[in-house]
Amino acid sequence: MLPTKLAFVDLETTGGRSTYDRIIEIGIVQVDGDEIIDTYSTLLNPGSHVPLEIVKITGITTADVENAPTFREVAPDIIARLKDSVFVAHNVRFDYGFLKTEFARLGYTFSSKHFCTVRLSRHLYPAHTRHNLDSIIERLNLSCENRHRALDDAKVIFSFYQQAKQKFPEPVFSKALKTVLKKPYLPIKLSEEILDALPETAGVYIFYAGNGAPLYIGKSINIKDRVLSHFAGDIHSPLEMKIAQQVESIETISTAGELGALFLESQLVKSMLPLYNKMLRRKQELLSLKQTENGDGYLTVEILPLVEPPLSDLSSFLGFFRSRKQAKNYLSTLCKEHGLCEKLLGLEKSTTECLGYRLERCSGACVGKEKSLNYNLRFMEAFGKTKLKRWPFPGPILIEEKDDSSDKNEFSLVDQWCFLGSVSKDSLGSVNEKPLDYSFDLDTYKILVRFLMSPKNEHKIHIPKPDQLQFSQR
Known about the structure:
The structure is a single chain. The chain is of the alpha+beta class and about 475 residues long. About 35% of the residues lie in helices and about 20% in strands. The protein has four domains: about 5-180, Ribonuclease H-like superfamily/Ribonuclease H (Nucleotidyltransferase, domain 5, 2-Layer Sandwich), CATH 3.30.420; about 190-280, 3-Layer(aba) Sandwich (GIY-YIG endonuclease), CATH 3.40.1440.10; about 285-380, no CATH class; about 395-474, no CATH class. It has 16 helices and 16 strands. The strands form four sheets. Strands 3-2-1-4-5 form a five-stranded mixed sheet. Strands 15-14-13-12-16 form a five-stranded antiparallel sheet, with helices on one face. The protein is elongated, with a radius of gyration of 29 Å.
């Protein structure tokens, strides 16, 4: 059954951080059934200036809000309009989070059933990739007199909801709405207070069983959202079901950003060996392909257990595999795709030419009929995708991440694809140092390759000064 009482809400704020920025305008459209029963709109005095970028977007200036009421003054009016209604917003986490924070400053715990129209749009219009409000307005030909003003945007959200409700068959719309309305399932051994206290920051979370044994370690840019997703209303995953049945406590460790969370997760999984993190625990099971050269100057490979590789020799490693069979299947595929020799790669034992040469798949490197230079160029091209990359910097680098909600900066020291440690500084200047030793780890390598290949991360990379490296040498 569809909810009848809804409150469509939109906020304009001084920025995107609910713990730091403040609301400058709120708009509410109260709906009962399909009818608007009331609208509410007011500017709010944030107690600070309105940043220029916000003025450009909303048209709301510092002068406009100087004589406006404070949130404390209008809080009773807002509560009266949201009470007993489902809270609806576009990107509801933003609007709902800001209101919860504002009410918390007044000593009041605000809680309401809510859903997000972004998620509703994604469920109803899966063929479309963009679901921001401007895209929805254009797609559905909706009208908005004053875009980026709270009441007008709230009215657009209601128009979208109304039009979608009319367009889609009732079972389809009801199913989509039921999905976005789902509340997290509360595991029987886990208290609601634990979930309420989870931070909404980047970091790592650890699920523990009653005996203190670690069950699962995960990471997220929003710990609370990710933890709650484990306990969705209908748990279809057998793994999630096992976790939900056993978890009794949760430990969280906040980081300044996603990269720090990725590093920390990888380290903790390998040191704590949680029961259900099987993929990240498999380091000891990996085999490596190491590039070598035979006596005739042809490049070939050895299949070796993955041990600690020398940092000066990383580029000779051509790939990592779970089993010898998987490694050999990969080599066989490369032989067919790039005309490599199965005999030289150890897939075939023969005292004469290989079978591929007789079938005209090999150009005769196995019997010296192809020049080693030509063969080796093709060999290097074949392994280009899986070969470990050379470290692209002359020495170590610092990667900076910032947590705007706590004014915390975190610097990760990295060299030769090794994570060497981190330094974090908070708004009070306190320093927390976590030095590590040089140790190559495949998961860390993959994390860094993805991070460094993204142009959006270039500004986070710094070449450190000598005094910034002291902490890693203690």
